[in-house]
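Hi F.,

I've been meaning to write this up properly since the lab meeting, where we talked about keeping a consistent format for the predictions we share between groups. The idea is simple: the sequence comes first, exactly as it goes in, then the structure tokens exactly as they come out, then a line or two of notes. No screenshots and no reformatting. I'm using this chain as the first example so we have something concrete to point to.
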Amino acid sequence: MTKTTISEVYQYVDQEVTIGAWLANKRSSGKIAFLQLRDGTGFIQGVVVKSEVEEEVFQLAKAITQESSIYVTGKVQKDERSPFGYELSVNKIEVIQQAVDYPITPKKHGTEFLMDHRHLWLRARRQHAMMKIRNEIIRATYEFFNEHGFVKVDPPILTGSAPEGTTELFHTKYFDEDAFLSQSGQLYMEAAAMALGKVFSFGPTFRAEKSKTRRHLIEFWMIEPEMAFCKFEDSLVIQEEYVSYLVQAVLKNCNLELQTLGRDISKLEKIKAPFPRITYDDAIKRLHEKGFNDIEWGDDFGAPHETVIAESFDKPVFITHYPTSLKPFYMEPHPERDEVVLCADLIAPEGYGEIIGGSERIYDYDLLKKRIQEHGLDVDAYKWYLDLRQYGAVPHSGFGLGLERTVAWISGVEHVRETIPFPRLLNRLYP
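Output, unedited:
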């Protein structure tokens, strides 16, 4: 007997195969049982016709409980009515383990209940679709940067200093020293770029920020490229090409998952470089025109501001040249305006907010040291970082893309908590 997976059944049309699966759901009449099967690679309907199988097989099909594990054997058939395109005409069932009282029934459940059962909720068709899209974005990320000559580098998760101060970091003891969980690998990636030219990292980051918004997680994953001999404008081009690449990869390889989520694909089809760009100054003017008269030059943007700005565009939009006072110490000042820095946030359309933050980095030793002191940071803790400006300093730029926000936007889901397998939220460390 040929063993295969649901994703591979297209190779065996009109042939008999065996699939190891779980019963996601079922319905039956007196003569036919319809089994919704999943195996991790996808979902398929198994049809058991009473007149075509032994009586014990049909009774077993009616008796199997939700999320029981089984082996099913049957003939693969094309089915134009199915989004997947195939179904299985079942003639044999072997129960591996019969599940009892599976807690997530087909009825509607509250979010807190589902989050308490996240280890099981991941099995649902919608959650499965989001994890597949997340995986495709990760796959496409590696492909894009490898094709563009970047080297993957892994920065440490435990650090003795922070790129943006320590007020929102998780503190721990590192034997007899203070240490923090990383909020960004950027500083280390700058060191790597001075050795390898173009590098990127992909790993977990942590923010001890007491936020409960739909855009925030305590633990999230960041893709952080850093490029030597790269000016601010050069970095923007890489960013828009990268984001376009991700969207097109999902459109190409996750069409079924996007359908499952009910995503409006026409909006994603418009996401191709180049992206529009406006300055912070322009953004302030736009907000005043939209009635946000309480925001002044020098104020940071919140979610409502970003959403209103993004509504004018059907692609992500760069907001460039923020005030120096709003940004971290390492950003290169504008050559003609010391009050703003060479930075940009990339704001996704449809209200999903910032998905990328990036800048050109200061490469002048004296200026960087001054900025560290002005931010009240310990110069000794950043000695190694200052060394990069003493031994062959070059213009360099980089950015960070938040994976979960990007998955949420491309998937069209409302809250980032569904875009990571086991979310860490302000009041959630379980499961």
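Notes:
The chain has a mean pLDDT of 96.
The domain at 119-418 is CATH 3.30.930.10 (BirA Bifunctional Protein; domain 2).

If this format works for you, I'll send the rest the same way.

G.
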